Amino acid sequence: MKIIKPYFEILDNTTEEKLLHNLELFGRVCYKSEERITKDSSKSFIDMILKSGHESVLEHEKISVRIICDRGVTHEIVRHRIASYSQESTRYCNYSKDKFGNELTFIEPCFWNENKDEVKKEIWKTQLQEIEKAYMQLLKFGASPQEARTILPNSLKTEIIMSMNIREWRHFFKLRTSERAHPQMREIASMILGEFKNRYEVLFKDI
After folding, report:
1. pLDDT by residue (tens digit) across 147-186?
2. Hey, which residues does 157 pair with through a beta bridge?
3. What domain range includes position 150?
4. Cα(169)–Cα(137) distance, rounded to whole angstroms?
């Protein structure tokens, strides 16, 4: 059994400069002001778009992210409908095989303090060990991965590719980094938003 922390990887190599250039080019069609495009005009144009609420322009560009988190979090992620997803399948992945290290991998919850919640965490770990043991036994006795998966918990590590347009990413972050969001959802969403702000500051600095 392996326990890891959630993480992510941005899969697009598109620079902020290229994103802003395209969005300005597409957006200025609305005003027929393409002649005003200069080398440095895209930032101020996008700022204007955001302040005016004309965010449909942002739907022309997308960003794809690989997210490694627990399955409970992905149940919430896929509720965002304006997106494309490809997720690791427990129907077809046989975790007793070498490429998975012959073990189950779980995501460590962010909400339990190492000292204060030691007993809770130990109960959690003990249960996961029993689940891993039972899962491997089911496979050993002839169960298929899609049959054995019925006992797998939300804490199971999963990998999901998530592609959304810029407008939907903004909507996603506004919902999923708020104090009302589930702690584990907020954890990974905040991590991604922090990197988005580094890479695409103009598009996400106001969130």
Report:
1. 999 999 999 999 999 999 999 999 999 999 999 999 999 9
2. 70
3. 1-12+63-207
4. 41
